[in-house]
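ok here's MYND-type domain-containing protein, seq below lol
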Amino acid sequence: MLRPEVVERLDCPIVGLATSWSIGRKGVPLDNLEAVRTLFERKFWPFPKGKIRKSNSRASSLRELGNATYKKAPNEPGKALELYNQSICMAEEGSTDLGLAYANRSAVYFNRKLYRECLDNIALARNHNYPSQMMSKLVEREKRAKQFLENDVDNSSPSESSTTTKNSTIKSFLALSEDRRCLITTRYMEAGEKVLLEKPFVLVVEPELAYQRCDYCAATKKHSLIPCKGCTAVMYCNEECQAQAFQRYHQFECEIVDDLHLLFRGPKATRMFHVILRLFWQAILLLLEDPKKFLKCVAPAERESPRDSSGGECFALVAT
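and the structure came out like this:
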C-alpha cells in the first residue's frame, strides 16, 4: 500500500486506491509519485476517453445492420431488435434517424403479428421526425395493423388483473407474526416455492441487457423501450420510468455511465458496488431534500428500535 503522505497528495481517494493497485502490478517504487501520476494519466486509465456521444451516422449504420440481420433471420428477430434499440439510443434527439429506427421496429412487430406493439412504435416514429416523404408507407402499415387488431382477439398482452391475481395468490398464505416483527406462512410449503414477489428498492441492469430491459424497473419490453436523451447506454419502458430514474440516480450517472459499465464489469459480485453507488445517490438526495428524515434513517436509536413506527419504514427501505 502507499504511504499516507503519498495518498494525500493524489487528487482523490479513489485514484489513490487505483494507484496502489497499479503500483503493485507495475512495480513502481512506492515513493515515486511522479511515475504514479504518469501511470494514471487519462490515456492509461482503462475507461473511454470521455462519454460516448450520440451520432446520427452511427445510428444509421446500426439501423442498416439491423435490417440486414432481420433479412437473414426473419423468424428470429431478437438480434435485429437489439440493433434497432442501439440505433435508437445512438440517434440524436430530434433527428430523422430516431423516427426511422422506431419505424423499422414497428415493421418487425407487424410481421410478427404483434399489432399493438406495431402501433406503439408507429406512434413513436411519428413523434420523432419520421420523414414526411415516407409517411404514406407508415400510414398504410398503421391502417392494416388496426384492421388486423380488430379481428384478432388472441393478440392481447396479459392483463393487469391476471397479474394481480397471481401476486395476490402468492401473498395469501403470508401473515405477520404475533409480535409483528416478521412474516410467517399459514400453510406447509414445498422447497423452492415462491412466497413473495417484491419490487426492489434499487437495481442495476447488466450492461449486456441494456438494450433489452428498462434501466429503472428491469422489465423486458423490447417493443416500447425509449432512450435516455443524454447518453447512449440505457433505455426505459416509458417517460415515467425515464423521469424516475433521472430523479433517483441517472442525473449523476448520465455523464459517466460508460465508465461505470467498465468499472463494474467482470464477476457479477463486483456489480453490487454499482447497486451500492445508486443507494448512495439516493441517500445524498434524501439528505438534501429532507435532512430530518435522513437522520431518522441512520440514527443509532432508530436501528435499535426496529418497531418504532416513526423511522422503521425508512430504515427498512435503506436496508433493502
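fwiw Residues 168-192 form one domain. kinda neat tbh
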